[in-house]
Amino acid sequence: MSVLARALPSTSAQTPPRGLLANSVQRIELLWRIAQAPQAPIVAAYAPAGYGKSTLLAQWAQSRGGRLAWVALSASENDPSVLAGTLAGALETVNGGNGEGTLVLDNVERVDSRRSLELLGSIVEEPPAGVRLGLASRNVPPLHLDRLLAARRALHLDASDLAMGASEAQELLGALGVSHDDGAADELVERTEGWPAAISLAAVSREALDRYIREEVLPAVQGDARTLAVRTAVLDELSGELCDAVLDRHGTGDLLRELEACGATLRKQDAAGVSYRWHPLVLGVLKAELQTCAPEEVCLLHRRAGEWFVSHGRIEEAIEHVCAAGDEARAGELLWEHAALFLYGRDELLRRWLAMFCERQIASDPALALVAAHSALALEDMPVARRWSELAQRALAHADSGPKAPSLDMGSQASSLRAGATLIEAAAAEGGVEQAASSVAQAQEALESTSPLWPLAGLLRGVALHLSGERDSARGHLVDAARDRAGATPLLGALSLAQLALMDVEDRAWSAAEQRVGQARAIVCEHGLEGRPACATVYAVSALVHSRRGLADEAKRELRQAAALLHSLGEFIPWFAVETRIAMARTSARLADVVGARALLSAASHGARATRPVPRLLDWLDEAWGELDEVGAEALSGPCALTMAELRVLRFLPTHLSFREIGERLHVSNNTVKTQAHAIYSKLDADSRTEAVAHAYALGLIDALVV
Q: Where is average pLDDT lowest: 44-53, 401-410, 621-630?
């Protein structure tokens, strides 16, 4: 300490800068944490600008009382003789009275000369007796605190420690006079990750925050490090290997370590220091700088990043970068190859990626267009799905006749793409169930059993075969479609199980139906599909099974959910809406809601006749009407009560069908229908078919919209 002994008195500030404590938030938890380490004579706060290091140390010094020396270091202290004088004066102030004193060295990052750092290190190694030492620095200075930290003779606080929580953010906003609602502080803390300066500036304006980052944070990043920071701003995660690949160079790992040490908010993501990330707000400013200084490089940087992630098996990040690069061919190839990860399960991510391309770009690539088609189908938008499928087939035909795209292996991928287009057409079902089953069979011949389209093919083929009367074959395909493939297509799995449960209901195997629909409901809940309209079928079958078990409350709950989802169901696979309404109607009948059941069967009848006739659906409708007639017959009493045979005829009277056609539907003669119709007129006090319909509707015996 001889240098200090010879030094002249310093002119540096001996108290905290004026205003440092004014309107500041009391960091109670941090102060308590410091107070719990009385044996630690050193408190080191290392964090980037704006984290409240100086404010915390000022509050700590104030809470301790006694004599205080506050030294705001500057570049002049890189001269060891100047630094020695500064420290000598400060220590004289601290030691000039009785009791313990506090010495705070602020802006330690401004001292970087070797001899001055050695001088600071001598004080850190052996603080004067009775002196508590506070250090504030934007970076981690080479003062070798490790030994003292291990011996618990020093306390180290970094940005994660200094970040504010919601309550502190609320107090800060209040102190600044910034009006905010109850959720504003939570939102600001999440967006700023608790960075105090960012909280106060973001509450005022984003421009002020960006300016602060450019003027106070990023000046610490200069030269080659700045080039690295800006050019890699396309990355959310940084590592030496990844940055080398993106920048097409070597040795960026050392630069990353320098950036992390300079206090510019680059943080380690792992203990080994392999992975780093910028504070999101700083990354946003770096991205803006990249767009300004090198916009022509952005796509190339994204492409390089995408290929690096592909080579490391990180497909989601790879697709993100390829899409950001605007490379529709490569994006289509990757999305189609890995569609099982995103189609019919995580389609919100898929929609965001597709939104990075314009319609012309999507239509130009067959794979990307087919991805868009299946994304639309998953969202129950059949018209859009068919449009993209047609555009994909055109692009595929163009690719067949022209030069092959470098990223499209026409020998292996083209057949898969054609199969994908075939499945869209089969789902539309315009050719009827038999043709749909045949088309799906052809598509399956071109698909591997590991294909992401296999569960969809199994579901479509299983339903088509079921409705065609080929129950055994249908069951096999549905079981295969429902098989868990690491949860890749949960929506299709749930729908396949619901269809199997319907088959169990047909067989009156109620225990099996309950088990299957329970599995379907579990998938829906596990994967957050409760709001997906296509899941209306799952809830409808669940309601039917609950009603069969006599669980009325549970059945009503499931029925309400099915109705809500059905209301928002778009143009999905047409059979599902009909099946769903029939199951809901049967449940409503069991719950004695005759009017609701008739309305559902009326709508189901409309849906069944909107496409080519499906005999099995018509049989189900007749059976459901029969169940409803039984409920209606039980509810009627007195001499004018209609018989079951008359109720069956009554429900056809609002239709355009003649008595002969009604007889064909009910498998009775024309004369029998006439006899029963006239009996209905008599019992309902009606003189005509029209008047009988009106009276029956008024009594709630039929829905006048039945066709």
A: 401-410
Calculate the dihedral angle through the C-alpha atoms of 56, 60, 62, 68, rounding to the nearest 10 degrees. Answer: -100
The DSSP call for residue 213 is: I
Dig out the tokens for 413 from the structure.
């991928």
15: confidence class by pLDDT, cuts 50, 70, 90: low
Name the helix (H) or strand (E) containing 106: strand 101-106
What six digits make up the tokens of 203?
């509450």
Structure token pair of residue 573: 């696979």
pLDDT of residue 139 exceeding 60:
yes
**Quick check: 432 pLDDT over 50?**
yes
CA distance 202 to 210: 9
What is the CATH architecture of 608-698? Answer: Orthogonal Bundle (1.10)
Would you say 133 and 105 are in contact if contact means Cβ atoms under 8 Å apart? Answer: yes
∠ CA(303), CA(308), CA(310), 5° rounding?
95
**pLDDT score, position 86:** 93
217-325 to CATH, choices 1.10.10, 2.60.40, 2.160.20, 1.10.287: 1.10.10
Whether pLDDT at 429 is above 70: yes
Task: Please enumerate in sequence order all residues whose Cβ is within 8 A of that of 184, keeping only pairs 6 or more positions apart, or say none.
Answer: 173, 203
Instruction: Extract the runs of DSSP E, i.e. beta strands, from 5-57.
Output: 42-46
- What's the start-to-end Cα distance of the chain, in Å? 103
Are 530 and 511 contacting, i.e. CB atoms less than 8 angstroms apart? Answer: no
How many residues comprise the chain? 707
Both tokens of residue 157? 């606080």
The predicted structure's pLDDT at residue 705:
45
| 619 Cβ neighbours under 8 A, 6+ residues apart | none
Q: pLDDT by residue (tens digit) across 372-422? A: 999 999 888 899 999 999 999 998 888 766 555 444 444 567 888 999 999
If you write DSSP's letter for every residue of 513-565 in order, what string do you get? HHHHHHHHHHHHHHTT-TT-GGGHHHHHHHHHHHHHTT-HHHHHHHHHHHHHH
CA dist 301 and 290 (Å) reads 11
Mean pLDDT of 208-225: 93
**Could you give the CA distance from residue 533 to residue 539 in angstroms, rounded to a whole number?**
10
pLDDT of residue 42: 93
Helix, strand or coil for residue 269? coil
Please tell me the predicted confidence (pLDDT) of residue 692. 86
Q: What is the pLDDT of residues 63-75, one digit of tens each?
A: 888 889 999 999 9
SS3 437: helix
| Structural domain spans, the chain | 2-162, 167-204, 217-325, 608-698
Q: 271-285 pLDDT, tens per residue?
A: 777 899 999 999 999
DSSP letters along 337-359, please? HTGGGTTTTSHHHHHHHHTTS-H
Report the C-alpha gap between 21 and 634 in whole angstroms: 83
Answer whether CATH 3.40.50.300 is correct for domain 2-162.
yes
Structure tokens at 317: 């990040």
Helix (H, G, I), strand (E, B) or coil at 70: strand
Same fold, 217-325 and 608-698: yes
Give me the pLDDT at residue 9, please. Answer: 40
